[in-house]
Automatic annotation (TrEMBL):
The keyword Transferase does not apply. GO terms for molecular function: hydrolase activity, acting on carbon-nitrogen (but not peptide) bonds. This is Amidohydrolase-related domain-containing protein. Keywords: Signal. PANTHER family: ALPHA-D-RIBOSE 1-METHYLPHOSPHONATE 5-TRIPHOSPHATE DIPHOSPHATASE. Gene3D superfamilies: Metal-dependent hydrolases, Urease, subunit C, domain 1. The keyword DNA repair does not apply. Residues 82-460 form the Amidohydrolase-related domain. Pfam families: Amidohydro_1. InterPro entries: Amidohydro-rel (IPR006680), Metal-dep_hydrolase_composite (IPR011059), Metal_Hydrolase (IPR032466), Metallo-dep_Hydrolase (IPR051781). Residues 1-28 form the signal peptide.
Length: 480
C-alpha cells in the first residue's frame, strides 16, 4: 500500500543542504565570555575562570582567562556564572498543526480523502493560526534554554515550513531538524501519518519521493505491535522490510530512528541497522544483557519519560503549571483548560495510571543504560520547551548524576542527531550555541532553569522579541 506525497515546490526549494542546516544568524557578534565556570558538555569536571571566544557564530577558543588572547569585540563578565552548551530535545511534536478541537489546521488530511475541503478563507485563517502557534512553541524552547530540537513526526506542511523559515533566519527559533511523515507498515503504529510500505519493489518509489520532497533530516520508522490507550495489538513492520528501508535511507546519507517500546523490538531495530531509538524500553525492566548491548553498540536512545509521566503529574500536581517556565510558555486560557477540562478527563483514563506505574521502570532502564556506557539523550515527546527540564528532573530522580545529565542533554543529543561534530559541546570550531546560568547544574539539575541568557549561533537571544504564549512575561534575565 502506497501513500504518495505531493507538496508545494517551496518545501523542496527551501529544504537546505547540510551547510545551510548549520548556518549562523546574521546578527551574531564577535564576543568573549570571561571569568566563567565552564561546563563544556563533554563530561569533564567544571573548569573555573575560563574564557570562551566567539567569532562569526562559532567558538574560536576555550582557555583560562589568565592566558586568553586579546581580541576585539564585546566582552561579557561571567563571574559567578556557569556556561553550558545549548540544551537539546531530540524528540518533540511541535504544536500548531491541529487546533484545540483536534481539527487539522494545515495541509490535506490524507487519512480522510473524502472530506470536503474547507473554503479558501478558512484554509488561510487556519494556516495563520497554526503558524502563530508554532512560533509561540518554538519561542518556549529558546526561553527554556533549548537551542536544538528534532521533530519526530508532524504534519509536513507545518513543520517543514517552519524548518525552512528557521534555516533562512526569518524566525526566532531553535535549530529545527525534522522527519515530516513517518515510514512504516500499513496498520502499524503511526501509520495514519506515515508513508506506508508493505511491498519493497512496489512501494520503494513512494519512499524515494518522500526523501526528495520532504528532505527529512532523520527518517523515523515504527516497530511496535502495540497501539495507544489500552495497547491493542496491531500490525508490525517486518524486519526484512525494515532493513531494506534503512539501507536505502542511509544510502541517501540520511539517518534513521525507530519507535520501539520493548527490549525485544529495540534489540531487533538495533540489529536491523537503525541509527537511533526514539524511546526508552517502557514495557518492562531491561536485562543486564540489553544494557551491555547498548553500552557496546552506542546506539543513542531518546529518554521520553515526561510523555508518560505527564498524565498523572497533571492530575496529581497541576500546580507545576504555575512555575515561571510554564506560565511563559502557555497562555492563561490554555492553563485554565488544562486544569479544568484536561485534568478530569485524564483522571478517568486507565492509560494515565498505567503510565504512572511504568515510568519508574523506564527511569531505571535509562539509568542502567547510562551506567553501562550507553548513549541516552534528553527527549520529551512533547510540544513545548519546559518539558526538557522535567525530563532532566526525572533522570536525576532515577539516580543519574546531575553532571552526567548535562552531557545527556547536550552532547548526547548531538550524537543522536549525527551532529556531534558541529553541536553539543563548547569546543573550538563548533557552533556557538550556549546558555549562561546563575547556579551550578552539576550540583542540582534544577539549576539549569536559572537562565541568564541563551545564545544560538553566536547571537544572544533577545527575550523582548520572543512571541511567548504567556504574553508580556516579565524578563528574568540580563539581556544587555
Amino acid at each position: 500500500m502506497t501513500l504518495m506525497i505531493g507538496f508545494p515546490s517551496r518545501f523542496a526549494a527551501c529544504a537546505s543542504a547540510l551547510a545551510l542546516v548549520l548556518t549562523t544568524p546574521a546578527l551574531a557578534e564577535d564576543l568573549v565570555i570571561e571569568n566563567v565556570t565552564l561546563i563544556d558538555g563533554t563530561g569533564q569536571p567544571n573548569q573555573t575562570d575560563m574564557s570562551v571566544g566567539v567569532e562569526d557564530g562559532r567558538i574560536t577558543f576555550v582557555t583560562p582567562t589568565a592566558v586568553a588572547p586579546e581580541v576585539p569585540g564585546r566582552h561579557i563578565d561571567g563571574s559567578g556564572r556557569y556556561l553550558i552548551p545549548g540544551l537539546m530535545d531530540v524528540h518533540i511534536h511541535l504544536k500548531g498543526a491541529r487546533g484545540g478541537d483536534g481539527r487539522r489546521m494545515v495541509g490535506v488530511d490524507r487519512t480522510n480523502p473524502q472530506a470536503t475541503p474547507p473554503p479558501p478563507a478558512q484554509v488561510a485563517a487556519d494556516a495563520a493560526t497554526a503558524h502563530e502557534a508554532g512560533l509561540e512553541a518554538l519561542a518556549s524552547y529558546l526561553y527554556s534554554g533549548v537551542t536544538t530540537v528534532f521533530d519526530a513526526g508532524n504534519v509536513p506542511e507545518h513543520i517543514l515550513g517552519l524548518r525552512a523559515e528557521e534555516r533562512a533566519g526569518e524566525i526566532l527559533s531553535p535549530r529545527i531538524f525534522a522527519t515530516g511523515n513517518l515510514v512504516t507498515y500499513p496498520g502499524s503504529h503511526g501509520s495514519g501519518m506515515a508513508i506506508e510500505i508493505d511491498d519493497w519493489s512496489e512501494d520503494k518509489p513512494a519512499l524515494l519521493e518522500y526523501l526528495k520532497e520532504q528532505k527529512p533530516d532523520i527518517v523515523k520508522l515504527t516497530l511496535d505491535e502495540h497501539g495507544w490507550g489500552t495497547r491493542p495489538l496491531i500490525s508490525l513492520l517486518p524486519l526484512d522490510l525494515m532493513q531494506d528501508i534503512i539501507l536505502e535511507v542511509n544510502r541517501h546519507g540520511i539517518r534513521t530512528t525507530a519507535h520501539t517500546s520493548s527490549e525485544l523490538r529495540a534489540t531487533e531495530a538495533i540489529f536491523a541497522g537503525v541509527d537511533s531509538l526514539a524511546h526508552p524500553v517502557i514495557q518492562g525492566p531491561i536485562t543486564e544483557e540489553f544494557a551491555k548491548l547498548m553500552g557496546a553498540k552506542k546506539t543513542p536512545m531518546a529518554t521520553t519519560l515526561t510523555i508518560g509521566e505527564g498524565y498523572s503529574r497533571l492530575v496529581e500536581h497541576p500546580e507545576f503549571l504555575d512555575q515561571p517556565l510554564y506560565q511563559a510558555s502557555y497562555s492563561a486560557e490554555e492553563i485554565d483548560k488544562l486544569k479544568t477540562e484536561t485534568l478530569p478527563a485524564w483522571k478517568e483514563r486507565g492509560w494515565t495510571w498505567w503510565m504512572k506505574l511504568m515510568t519508574p521502570v523506564a527511569q531505571e532502564n535509562m539509568r542502567m543504560i547510562d551506567a553501562a556506557g550507553g548513549v541516552i539523550a534528553i527527549a520529551t515527546d512533547q510540544t513545548l520547551g519546559p518539558a526538557v527540564h522535567r525530563e532532566m528532573e526525572l533522570l536525576q530522580a532515577a539516580g543519574v548524576p546531575a553532571a552526567r545529565i548535562v552531557t545527556i542533554a547536550t552532547l548526547n543529543g548531538a550524537k543522536h542527531l549525527g551532529k556531534a561534530d558541529e553541536l553539543g559541546s563548547i569546543e573550538p570550531g563548533k557552533l556557538a550555541d550556549m546558555v549562561l546560568l546563575s547556579a551550578d547544574p552539576t550540583v542540582d539539575i534544577n539549576n539549569a532553569k536559572q537562565i541568564v541568557w541563551v545564545m544560538k549561533g553566536g547571537e544572544l537571544i533577545d527575550e523582548d522579541k520572543l512571541p511567548l504564549a504567556g504574553g508580556n512575561f516579565p524578563l528574568r534575565r540580563e539581556q544587555r
